[in-house]
Recover the amino acids of this structure.
């Protein structure tokens, strides 16, 4: 296994890399490829805007991380380990940021970050589900959605104590809002890939193959598309391969496109090109690029991330802090646990 400092750096790289992909793809999220090229040139969009704003995927990823760290800290201080409950509470805190214009008096944690009180085209499935008193689980789904809103927020739990926990918890957290098998199984699969490459130090192709075998038991669509992504990656990097995998509006497609781009352009110096490949297609550009960025950030750490891009990124310091603490929780390194004790409880729906 990699040394603790490497795992911590990979956790930071995972969250920052995902945020960079999200920021790169957000301006072209709803455009067809021809329209992207007409607006940005033949190469499409090539770098994030001067103000690289967080998309809804990154916002919810941060709250996933905060909720997970709340559970970890409670368990490490004599309390119960209840990650599903604490992440549920974190998602309801995120919902407050979509309903209010500024932090309430005395807000703590991410609720105190004024920049998060911005609506960045969040998925209706998540908004509706989180407004209900009872959320879903893989065994008791509340809807049949297999949209990508579960997978693109799932990377923090890749730093859970084991591969089994990473996969299972990724599935359960996505199923809170997305009840279709592809909606939650793709999330567990991404969490597992992150764990295998960042924590166990596995090669990315091997990690994708292992994750494909695991998800086959739960969702054939996710497994099939991920296997196809692996095959296509060996043929080289091409937008035609991306669009063969779909548009990324559903979880299995978004995961497959994100994994394909990371597999096709896997070297650290190829990070910008991998994100460009993941963003420039006729589909859910921000989520697919976020997944690619998270995977490569988890594999290579922060050294692979373009400094110029990071300098533009909204709340980069907050993302780095959550990433550091996630990695530290995984390796036993010290971090400020008090940040995650006694977080503001959300109001009941």
């Amino acid at each position: 296994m990699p040394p603790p400092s490497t795992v911590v750096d990979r956790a930071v790289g995972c969250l920052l890399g995902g945020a960079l992909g999200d920021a790169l793809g957000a301006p072209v999220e709803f455009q067809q490829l021809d329209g992207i090229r007409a607006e940005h040139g033949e190469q499409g969009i090539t770098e994030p805007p001067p103000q690289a704003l967080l998309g809804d995927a990154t916002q919810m990823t941060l709250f996933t991380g905060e909720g997970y760290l709340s559970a970890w800290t409670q368990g490490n201080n004599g309390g119960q380990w209840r990650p599903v409950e604490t992440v549920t509470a974190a998602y309801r805190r995120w919902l407050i940021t979509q309903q209010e214009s500024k932090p309430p008096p005395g807000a703590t944690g991410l609720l105190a970050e004024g920049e998060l009180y911005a609506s960045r085209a969040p998925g209706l499935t998540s908004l509706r589900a989180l407004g209900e008193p009872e959320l879903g689980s893989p065994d008791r789904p509340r809807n049949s959605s297999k949209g990508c809103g579960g997978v693109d927020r799932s990377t923090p739990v890749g730093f859970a104590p084991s591969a089994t926990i990473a996969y299972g918890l990724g599935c359960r957290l996505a199923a809170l809002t997305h009840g279709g098998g592809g909606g939650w199984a793709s999330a567990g699969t991404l969490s597992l890939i992150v764990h295998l490459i960042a924590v166990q130090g596995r090669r990315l192709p091997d990690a994708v193959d292992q994750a494909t075998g695991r998800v086959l038991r739960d969702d054939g669509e996710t497994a099939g598309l991920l296997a196809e992504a692996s095959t296509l990656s060996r043929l080289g990097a091409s937008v035609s391969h991306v669009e063969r995998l779909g548009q990324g509006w559903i979880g299995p497609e978004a995961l497959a496109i994100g994994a394909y781009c990371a597999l096709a352009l896997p070297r650290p110096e190829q990070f910008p090109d991998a994100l460009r490949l993941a963003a420039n297609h006729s589909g859910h550009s921000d989520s697919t690029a976020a997944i690619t960025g998270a995977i490569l950030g988890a594999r290579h750490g922060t050294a692979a991330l373009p400094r110029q891009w990071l300098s533009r990124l909204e709340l980069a310091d907050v993302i780095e802090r959550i990433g550091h603490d996630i990695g530290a929780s995984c390796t036993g390194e010290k971090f400020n646990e008090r940040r995650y004790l006694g977080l503001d409880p959300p109001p009941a729906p």
